[in-house]
Amino acid sequence: MIVGMNHFTVIAEDPKATLDFYTGLLGLRVGHRPDLGFEGAWLYGDAPQAVLHLYFDRPPPAQRAGVIDHMAFTARGLREVKARFDARGTKYELRQQAGAGTWQLFCHDPNGAKVELDFDPSETLQGPLNPP
Questions:
Q1: For residues 108 and 15, is the Cβ–Cβ distance under 8 A?
Q2: Is residue 1 situated within a structural domain?
Q3: Which pTM was predicted?
Q4: Would you say residue 3 lies in a domain?
Q5: Domain count, the chain
Q6: For the chain, what is the mean pLDDT?
Q7: For residue 73, what are the CA distances in angstroms to 9, 19, 40, 56?
Q8: SS3 sequence, 58-106?
Q9: In sequence order, what are the residues at sequence separation of 6 or more whose Cβ sits closer than 8 angstroms to the Cβ of residue 102?
Q10: Run of H or E residues at 43
Q11: pLDDT at position 41, please?
Protein backbone atom coordinates (compact mmCIF):
# COMPACT_ATOMS: atom_id res chain seq x y z
CA MET A 1 0.00 0.00 0.00
CA ILE A 2 2.71 2.54 0.91
CA VAL A 3 5.09 3.20 -1.97
CA GLY A 4 7.53 5.65 -0.39
CA MET A 5 8.10 8.53 1.97
CA ASN A 6 6.38 11.75 0.91
CA HIS A 7 7.82 14.47 3.17
CA PHE A 8 8.75 15.52 6.68
CA THR A 9 7.39 18.67 8.35
CA VAL A 10 9.44 20.84 10.69
CA ILE A 11 8.08 23.62 12.90
CA ALA A 12 10.58 26.44 12.37
CA GLU A 13 11.19 28.54 15.46
CA ASP A 14 13.45 30.87 13.41
CA PRO A 15 12.37 30.81 9.74
CA LYS A 16 15.52 32.59 8.49
CA ALA A 17 17.96 30.28 10.30
CA THR A 18 15.93 27.23 9.31
CA LEU A 19 15.86 28.20 5.62
CA ASP A 20 19.59 28.97 5.72
CA PHE A 21 20.31 25.53 7.20
CA TYR A 22 18.23 23.57 4.71
CA THR A 23 18.95 25.65 1.60
CA GLY A 24 22.36 27.22 2.27
CA LEU A 25 23.97 24.27 4.05
CA LEU A 26 22.10 21.19 2.80
CA GLY A 27 21.32 22.47 -0.71
CA LEU A 28 17.55 22.04 -0.79
CA ARG A 29 15.64 24.73 -2.69
CA VAL A 30 12.44 26.61 -1.92
CA GLY A 31 9.76 25.72 -4.45
CA HIS A 32 6.06 25.83 -5.19
CA ARG A 33 3.76 25.79 -2.19
CA PRO A 34 0.02 26.26 -2.51
CA ASP A 35 -1.72 28.89 -0.40
CA LEU A 36 -2.52 26.87 2.70
CA GLY A 37 -3.70 29.81 4.77
CA PHE A 38 -0.61 29.93 6.98
CA GLU A 39 3.07 30.83 6.59
CA GLY A 40 5.62 28.22 5.63
CA ALA A 41 7.77 26.85 2.83
CA TRP A 42 8.17 23.68 0.82
CA LEU A 43 11.71 22.52 0.08
CA TYR A 44 12.81 20.37 -2.82
CA GLY A 45 15.84 18.28 -3.73
CA ASP A 46 16.38 16.92 -7.23
CA ALA A 47 12.93 15.31 -7.49
CA PRO A 48 9.77 17.20 -8.48
CA GLN A 49 8.14 16.46 -5.10
CA ALA A 50 8.79 18.51 -1.98
CA VAL A 51 10.72 16.49 0.62
CA LEU A 52 10.42 18.92 3.52
CA HIS A 53 7.61 21.22 4.63
CA LEU A 54 8.28 24.07 7.06
CA TYR A 55 5.72 25.70 9.35
CA PHE A 56 6.44 29.32 10.26
CA ASP A 57 3.22 30.08 12.13
CA ARG A 58 3.31 27.98 15.30
CA PRO A 59 5.52 27.56 18.34
CA PRO A 60 7.66 24.43 18.54
CA PRO A 61 6.66 21.82 21.11
CA ALA A 62 8.62 21.56 24.36
CA GLN A 63 9.73 18.04 23.44
CA ARG A 64 11.43 18.76 20.10
CA ALA A 65 11.86 15.25 18.66
CA GLY A 66 8.85 13.53 20.12
CA VAL A 67 8.59 9.93 18.98
CA ILE A 68 10.31 10.61 15.64
CA ASP A 69 14.05 10.27 16.22
CA HIS A 70 15.36 11.76 12.96
CA MET A 71 14.82 12.34 9.25
CA ALA A 72 17.24 10.92 6.69
CA PHE A 73 18.05 12.11 3.18
CA THR A 74 20.03 10.43 0.43
CA ALA A 75 22.83 12.82 -0.51
CA ARG A 76 25.88 13.13 -2.73
CA GLY A 77 29.08 15.15 -2.61
CA LEU A 78 30.40 13.98 0.75
CA ARG A 79 33.64 15.99 0.59
CA GLU A 80 31.86 19.20 -0.41
CA VAL A 81 29.12 18.80 2.19
CA LYS A 82 31.64 18.06 4.94
CA ALA A 83 33.67 21.12 3.88
CA ARG A 84 30.54 23.33 4.09
CA PHE A 85 29.77 22.03 7.59
CA ASP A 86 33.39 22.60 8.66
CA ALA A 87 33.50 26.12 7.16
CA ARG A 88 30.34 27.11 9.04
CA GLY A 89 31.39 25.44 12.26
CA THR A 90 28.20 23.36 12.25
CA LYS A 91 28.51 20.37 14.59
CA TYR A 92 28.05 16.92 13.10
CA GLU A 93 29.00 13.28 13.51
CA LEU A 94 30.28 11.44 10.44
CA ARG A 95 30.73 7.70 10.32
CA GLN A 96 30.85 4.89 7.82
CA GLN A 97 28.24 2.21 8.40
CA ALA A 98 29.68 -1.21 9.16
CA GLY A 99 28.98 -3.76 6.46
CA ALA A 100 27.19 -1.61 3.86
CA GLY A 101 29.81 1.15 3.95
CA THR A 102 27.25 3.95 3.63
CA TRP A 103 28.60 7.29 4.88
CA GLN A 104 26.25 8.82 7.47
CA LEU A 105 26.45 12.45 8.56
CA PHE A 106 24.27 13.29 11.57
CA CYS A 107 23.50 16.85 12.71
CA HIS A 108 20.70 18.96 14.19
CA ASP A 109 18.81 21.76 12.48
CA PRO A 110 18.28 25.12 14.26
CA ASN A 111 15.02 23.79 15.74
CA GLY A 112 16.57 20.69 17.31
CA ALA A 113 15.44 18.23 14.62
CA LYS A 114 18.00 15.47 14.04
CA VAL A 115 19.00 15.13 10.38
CA GLU A 116 20.89 12.25 8.73
CA LEU A 117 22.56 12.56 5.33
CA ASP A 118 23.43 9.24 3.66
CA PHE A 119 26.19 9.09 1.04
CA ASP A 120 27.13 6.23 -1.26
CA PRO A 121 29.97 4.01 0.03
CA SER A 122 31.96 4.76 -3.14
CA GLU A 123 32.43 8.41 -2.11
CA THR A 124 35.86 9.14 -0.65
CA LEU A 125 36.99 11.39 2.14
CA GLN A 126 40.28 13.05 2.98
CA GLY A 127 41.26 14.13 6.45
CA PRO A 128 39.59 13.35 9.77
CA LEU A 129 36.01 12.12 9.92
CA ASN A 130 34.87 14.63 12.53
CA PRO A 131 36.06 18.09 13.50
CA PRO A 132 38.23 18.38 16.63
A1: no
A2: no
A3: 0.90
A4: no
A5: 1
A6: 92
A7: 14, 16, 20, 22
A8: CCCCCCCCCCCCCEEEECCCHHHHHHHHHHHCCCCEEEECCCCCCEEEE
A9: 96, 118, 119, 120, 121
A10: strand 40-44
A11: 98
